[in-house]
Amino acid sequence: MKAAKKGSARQFGKSFWTVITMEFFERGSYYGVMSVLSVYLVLSKAEGGLNFPKESVGVIKSVITPLLYFLPILAGAIGDRFGYRKILFLAFSLMSLGYLFAGFSTTYATVFGSLLLMAFGAGFFKPLISGTIARVTDHSNASLGFGIYYWSINLGAFLFPLILVPWLKSISFNYIFFMAAIGTGSMLLLNLLVFKEPVLQKTIKPLRQVFREMVMVLGDYRFIVMIVLYSGFWIMYFQVYDSVLWYLKEKVDMSGFDRLVNSVLALFMEHPSWKFDAEHVTVMNAGAIILLQLLVSGIVRNKKALPTMIFGIALGSAGMGMLAISPSGWIFLLSMFVFTLGEMIAHPKFISYVGMTAPADKKALYQGYAFLYGVIGSGVGGILGAHLYVLFVEKLNQPSLLWITFSGIGVLTIIGLLVYNRVFGRSGKN
């Protein structure tokens, strides 16, 4: 039998494809729920929602989403100590139960508690998949392996909201949560029957060392300033799962785009009635990344990291600001595409910048703590977006002010990074 060629997908073993399958179903379940969660929670009960105040939904999102970015810092060390299979069993159990309880929940407290369960499970899950891939690949195939890993994330985020969510919500929004419970719960069988414990490092990092490292990294003011500044972009980003969806449902006229899509579908079926809805915003984002990320990354590959980040954030700010022009569906689609393009340019360069500027012996450590941008961005973005939406859209009937404000946050982020570049740019590669 011929050996699998280096760089080909055939060279990866069963453990690799097992965790890729886990990642696909977990991310598909997560984004399937998140694509409509903020809309479902505020819809009236007559429309199948729970009729929660938007400010209360903002609190939920500002608690559960930061957990998804903070817990992986601890979960990697816990997985090394107790074994990946055991922690994966815990993670899938918590996620599945969280989604299941959320599907049955009708009160604010029970929904909040159910989503907290899900968040703890997802937070423990995230680093174990990337950790397994790191341990079952080597220098010859790690790049392709992680490329497949990121592809599986976006493929799940694309297919579940595109295919399953519209069908399930036509029955009941609750079925979306049940779908996610099945999607994550079924992975318990894969974990039990197929997953093989990866070979762990001989020296297992104790949790007290994790906390010591945390104090050390947080004491690096240059790194922390970068994280705080970059989180401004993610305050904008997390609006895509909250205030942008409310705006789409309540203000944007998508009828022109719906007619165009249905005219195409009419070539293949009779009387199509497709309608652009909240879940398709997630589909757009993931689909654009699947199609364009490699191309975009190739174009900016040799560009300096920090200036390229700034350009990407400028595009994202422009995309957010475009929503202020009019409630036209075409403007909405264009603005979301421009924003996603900005994300594709800015975020890989941010990861690259952290890697280049971190101390040589602590690059992996700094990459782990770089995810604090998500803690700050989602923690601030959820509450801020909800309160500003209520103020500008519902009370003042001036939605353009909402998007100008968030675009302004992007502009302030750019100004801060320009100052940062002037102060720190000469002390290392940028």
Question: What does this 3D model show about the protein?
Answer:
This protein has about 425 residues and is mainly α. The chain has 2 domains: about 10-205, Up-down Bundle (Growth Hormone, Chain: A), CATH 1.20.1250; about 205-425, Growth Hormone, Chain: A, CATH 1.20.1250. The protein has helices at about 15-35, 35-40, 55-80, 85-105, 110-135, 140-170, 175-185, 185-195, 205-220, 220-235, 245-250, 255-265, 280-300, 305-320, 330-355, 365-370, 370-395, 400-425. Helix 4 packs antiparallel against helix 8 (about 185-195) and helix 6 runs antiparallel to helix 13 (about 280-300). It starts with 13 loop residues before the first helix and ends in a 6-residue tail after the last helix.
Q: Class by helix and strand content?
A: mainly alpha
List low-confidence stretches.
Answer: none
CATH architecture of the largest domain: Up-down Bundle
Portion of residues in beta strands equals under 5%
| Number of β-strand runs | 0
Q: How many domains comprise the coordinates?
A: 2
The CATH topology of the largest domain is what? Growth Hormone, Chain: A
CATH class call of the largest domain:
Mainly Alpha
Spatial separation of the terminal alpha carbons: 47 Å
**CATH level-4 homologous superfamily of the largest domain:** MFS general substrate transporter like domains
Number of helices: 18
Main sheet makeup = none
Assign an overall shape.
Answer: globular
Assembly level: single chain
- What is the arithmetic mean of pLDDT? 91
**Rg estimate, integer Å:** 22 Å
Percent helix = over 70%
Order of helices and strands: HHHHHHHHHHHHHHHHHH
